[in-house]
Automatic annotation (TrEMBL):
UniProt-recorded name of the protein: histidine kinase
GO MF term list: phosphorelay sensor kinase activity
Catalytic activity: ATP + protein L-histidine = ADP + protein N-phospho-L-histidine
EC number: 2.7.13.3
SMART domains in alphabetical order: HATPase_c, HisKA
Entry keywords, A to Z: Kinase, Phosphoprotein, Transferase, Two-component regulatory system
Highest taxon of source: Bacteria
Amino acid sequence: MDNGSSKDQFLSHMVSEMQIPLKAVLKLSESLLKNSYDANNREQYLKLIHNSAKNIDNIIKDVSDISSIQNGTFSINITKINLMEFLSQNFELFRLKAKEKSLRFSIKFGKNLPKFIDTDENRLSQVISNLLTNAIKFTEKEGSVKLEVVFDTQNSLLKVYVDDNGIGIPDSKKENIFKPFIRDKSNVNFEDTRTGLGLFISLSIIELLNGKIGFESKQGQGSTFHFEIPVKFEN
């Protein structure tokens, strides 16, 4: 952060973010300890505690990332990865998350995807996961979310698209969408694992990978977030 005021704002925001899941953990665990709950709801209570703890863990990770971004130590580790293995192992989980919300979820791969690419596997997964999490979060029941991955062989570009027909983004918020802490506060709940830092961190990762990230969105119709990164590849 550039100055004391910015640091205070950041810390205040993080304290606020931590309060929601911490209150959930305390309230639900207290009910379990006192046995003041319906036995039929025990599994639901444990699930909410788990999700709240996961939320806290995600907040800590995001704080660590943004701290590294601000002090210039945020790093990229390029290795050779099997692209299809990476895609199949990392994102099928989101099919289950979509199913829990009664959403249609599809994954489409281009026909000319290379077998191997050189990139940062963890950071690439982080960006795609951030975009899919947002798409599922802001798409209502019976809606659809699609992940599409294609490869531009001529320019050695990996291109990723995350499309949804959710609530979309108002024109008034588009300019600041990649700034930290931008999110719809009305959607915050015990199971919300977003801190408002995901898109800012994703932008930072894509820029470090010498790529570009952008989006198109219409309020009430949905959004498409997309990015491209240059990669070395082998078939």
